[in-house]
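Worked example 2:
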Amino acid sequence: MTKLKAIIIDDSPQARKLLLMMLEEHSNDLEVIGEAEQATQGLDLIKQHHPDVVFLDIEMPGKSGIQLAEQLLIEKINPAIVFTTAYNDYALKAFRLSAIDYLLKPINENHLEEAIEKIKKLHPKAEEEKKLKTFIDNYDDQLPKTLSIPSASGYIFIKINEIQYIKADGSYTHIYSSSEKAITVSKNLKYFETALEGYSQFVRVHRSYLINIFQMKKFDKQNRGEIVMNDGVLIDLAREKREDFFNAVEKFML
């Protein structure tokens, strides 16, 4: 099997050396063919060697890793990109929601091996481009706007504010939005509840439902309480979720 060609771009010589050592030790399928300490030099290397994958630091003096990734998109240069970062902040939410690969420094050996395995099973380039563009758009916002949803054939990209509600179905969930047909994915409801933490319009109202209160038409207090969504679907408000629901609604009351 032909080895994957890789380039490491990081302004820290120590970080490049450590990653190189880890790659040499843990991957027989990948060969590092070049290193760069800043984005402009890295772009030249990428154009010269056409690598399969680039390990790209986000924060660098001068042009950042994000700006380099944008340049690659503009020039239609399509290596797989694995971002590396020492910053455990809102950027990590952008990574997760965009389904883009990243390694948090100090790099964990198991996470590195998982990233390499993903690279070996890349989806079509057009889809990888979409994931990268989604990440860049999300990274520019304190709260990302797009969710990448894993599916049997790859990924589906959906605007977060268009999600109406997410319904649990065992180890699966059904995602209903104002612009798409229902999407079924093999993730449980807790996965999406965690992914959407920080989005105060999303609230768990029942063990089977996570709703977007911006997509709610009305709430009927009769009996146990019934939520009417914009698409007309009726959702019971669980007794143990009433406080969470009313607290969420009050945040957006005029």
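The longest strand covers residues 30-36. The chain is about 35% helix and 30% strand.
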